Amino acid sequence: MKLIHSVADMKVRCREISRTGKTLGFVPTMGALHDGHASLVRASTGQCEATAVSIFVNPLQFGPDEDLAKYPRTLERDGEMLEALGADLLFVPTMEEMYPAGATTHVEVGGLSERLDGLSRPGHFRGVATVVAKLFEIVRPDRAFFGQKDAAQVAVLRRMVRDLDMDVELVVCPIVREADGLAMSSRNAYLNENERKHALVLQRALLRVLHDTDQGERDIGKLMATGEGVIAEEPAARLDYFAIVDPDSLEPVSDLSRGALVAVAVFIGTTRLIDNLLLGPR
Ligand code: AMP
Questions:
Q1: Nearest CA to 22 among 2, 48, 44, 1?
Q2: Nearest protein CA to atom 10 of ligand 1, as residue
Q3: 20 to 30 A from 209, CA-CA: which of 103, 166, 173, 278?
Q4: 157 CB less than 6 Å from ligand 1?
Q5: pTM for this structure?
Q6: pLDDT tens across the length of the chain (282 residues)
Q7: What's the gap between Cα 116 and its chain centre?
Q8: Strand pairing partners for 89?
């Protein structure tokens, strides 16, 4: 695996791969890698002849009061893990490489960026779309792999790729969970032992809604109340949002006939966690 720090070097390496006719897969991350990230890398190495991974803690997608400074950074371990997984290129740009002085261009995905996480984290999806657009231009992958864990991010990036006619196929991989059901996240490292137990409330709320729909409940208001109720029963949890929306537009749905995304964001202490599930059309 080749470790690359500069945009220019990364372009040269990626173009070499593409010129030889190999399919290039790409997995963008912020590092502190876990099995969720590994599943994306495995999907890429399984589907593509070469795989590039990036690790960049993108300041543009963090709000002023968020965890940019304390975000876990475990580059050495990440590198070993990616090597073992068979990644070909690891791109770890500096802040100055990605955003040289005077850079003022942003990618704004209208509407979608202000829903779900975008509503509670103003500017977050603008930061995500901007860095992913830049990374796509640097790498020019055939396929890029993202986790369903960040369902709103998937909707924003799908729209960006469509609207800007980007030549990349987005592949969305299932949420990887710990044995007890907690969705894996680099931010789980912030949780103390007690918080770690309380964090199971997200999955519990989603499963209760799934259970109720399996029992025939179709009333969106009731399903929302059920999910929010489960969160309210956990004193350690502070609800950010509980939403039942269209997975593409992220707009609230009025019925489940075309399927829906059930998404939840909760603060456990100062740690913000998200989780979701997709309800299929009935
Ligand atoms: P991050 O490093 O948090 O920016 O995540 C990088 C990629 O990994 C994103 O596409 C995430 O959706 C994906 N990802 C993070 N956690 C998981 C998980 N538990 N299961 C599957 N994909 C994940």
A1: 48
A2: 146
A3: 173
A4: no
A5: 0.98
A6: 999 999 999 999 999 999 999 999 999 999 999 999 999 999 999 999 999 999 999 999 999 999 999 999 999 999 999 999 999 999 999 999 999 999 999 999 999 999 999 999 999 999 999 999 999 999 999 999 999 999 999 999 999 999 999 999 999 999 999 999 999 999 999 999 999 999 999 999 999 999 999 999 999 999 999 999 999 999 999 999 999 999 999 999 999 999 999 999 999 999 999 999 999 885
A7: 13
A8: 2, 52
Q: Is 175 in the pocket of ligand 1 (CB under 6 A)?
A: yes
Burial class (CB in 10 A: 0-12, 13-18, 19+), 267: middle
Is 34 among the catalytic positions?
A: no
Nearest CA to ligand 1 atom 19: 184
The residues pairing with 115 across neighbouring beta strands, listed in sequence order, are none
CA of 173 to the centre of ligand 1 (A): 9
CA of 67 to the centre of ligand 1 (A): 17
Instruction: Please list the residues that pair with 279 across neighbouring strands.
Output: 260
Query: In this structure, are residues 235 and 197 in contact, taking their beta carbons and an 8 Å threshold?
Result: no
| Distance from residue 37's CA to the centre of ligand 1 (Å) | 5
pLDDT digits (tens, 9 = 90+) for 145-158: 999 999 999 999 99
Contact 198, 237 (CB under 8 A): yes
Closest-CA residue, ligand 1 atom 14, reads 147
Residue 215: Cβ within 10 Å count: 7
C-alpha distances (whole Å) from 19 to each of 27, 53, 135, 154, 188 are: 20, 19, 18, 29, 40
